[in-house]
Design brief:
18 strands; 9 helices; alpha+beta; Aminopeptidase; about 375 residues; 2 domains; Alpha-Beta Plaits
Length: about 375
């Protein structure tokens, strides 16, 4: 690690990460971690502000240039619910730091905070830079939605887990809700009833075959399946949620229309059972060209740390989809591996967290220096 990256305070960074992991912050209940970070950032001498998301929830924004910046460093402080409420906090095993959110994405949040702390310590108080710690990414993305309504920045770095590989391409996303409605009868009369669950299973099987055969490269997940229940009865209602992640250039509108047509065909085939589809989220993917001020600063920072510059596509949904729709060009770059996110043994290599902090600091310092030279 070169002398610039060496400005990162490793012990301080490790303490911060462990503290963040010890604060439970599932989506919708981020108040404790936001309160802690607000105090931490103020003590670091950073001009932090709370941004309202709803009545009790806030983003934290550190802007070194007012409402408009060239680059925003963005991390989400919420997590999915704990796999075990009795055991979600930080644990260490050699270089690995384990805990809920270690990879997704409190490791990157800690690294970004350390980078901005170092900027303040070295006198960078005015620069076209912002740090945004947002809420709600794991559910509605309401933190990112609020952020782009009030702040402007053409470029962003989002610290989702990429194993320190830069992602200039991003998958699209469909969140689909399916409903079937039959007729409730006594369970012993099942053959005479109209079972909404059976109809849902037929739809899901046909949908999965369509997605596998017609659109290679996409990833789908049948996330939830519920019935109206009610005891010893034929269920009259069923609901399913399906996630579809589409390659960056996939025709999202065309695929969503084909899914609507598929459900319509099923409805016509069994007219006694109502079937419906609703797209809760429709986000297109994107590809960034390998040029521009942020890209050049990142390439130089990778070179400084002797890291290979090998851009990938980020295969999941993230706040980047919303930012892209708002006119922002987001690069996904963070520590940790995506396959460890949301898992019972979620973990991150502290050496990667340290490297991420160095990359963020070096990149921010370059952007700050370029901004200063333009004002002289």
């Amino acid at each position: 690690m070169n002398k610039e990256a060496g400005r990162i305070h490793a012990k301080r960074l490790r303490r911060l990460l462990k503290r963040l992991l010890d604060i439970y912050s599932p989506s919708g209940k981020e108040e404790d971690v936001v309160d802690y970070l607000y105090g931490y950032l103020r003590r670091a001498g950073l001009p932090v502000q709370r941004q309202d998301v709803d009545e009790n929830r806030h983003n934290l924004v550190v802007s070194l240039s007012g409402r408009e910046s060239e680059v925003a460093f963005i991390g989400h402080v919420d997590t999915v619910p704990a796999y075990e409420l009795e055991d979600f906090g930080a644990a260490e095993e050699g270089d690995l730091i384990k805990g809920l959110g270690a990879a997704d994405m409190k490791g990157a949040c800690a690294a970004m905070i350390e980078a901005f702390t170092c900027l303040a310590e070295h006198g960078v108080t005015e620069a076209p830079l912002a740090l945004a710690l947002v809420v709600g990414e794991e559910e509605k993305g309401d933190g990112a939605e609020a952020l782009v309504k009030e702040y402007h920045f053409p470029w962003a770095i989002i610290g989702e887990p990429t194993d320190l590989r830069p992602c200039l391409r991003h998958y699209g996303y469909l969140e689909i809700r399916l409903n079937t409605q039959g007729r409730r009868v006594h369970a012993s009369m099942a053959k005479k009833g109209l079972n909404a669950v059976e109809q849902m299973l037929r739809i899901l099987l046909r949908l999965s075959r369509y997605l596998e055969q017609e659109h290679k490269g996409l990833i789908y997940n049948i996330r939830d399946l519920f019935s109206s229940g009610g005891g010893f009865v034929v269920p009259d209602g069923c609901e399913a949620w399906v996630d579809v992640h589409l390659p960056p250039t996939a025709p999202v509108s065309e695929i969503s229309l084909e899914i609507e047509e598929l459900i319509s065909e099923e409805r016509r085939a069994g007219p006694a059972i109502e079937s419906s589809v609703h797209f809760a989220l429709v986000h297109s993917g994107y590809e960034l060209p390998e040029r521009g001020p942020l890209i050049e600063a990142l390439k130089a920072s990778f070179s400084d740390q002797d890291l290979a510059w090998e851009p990938l596509a980020f295969p999941s949904h993230s706040d980047a989809n919303q930012l892209w729709m708002a006119g922002v060009k987001p690069v996904i770059l963070g520590c940790g591996r995506l396959e460890k996110a949301h898992s019972p043994d979620e973990q991150v290599s502290f050496e990667q967290v340290l490297s991420a902090a160095g990359i963020y600091y070096q990149t921010a310092a370059r952007i700050a220096a370029e901004g200063k030279s333009r004002t002289i």
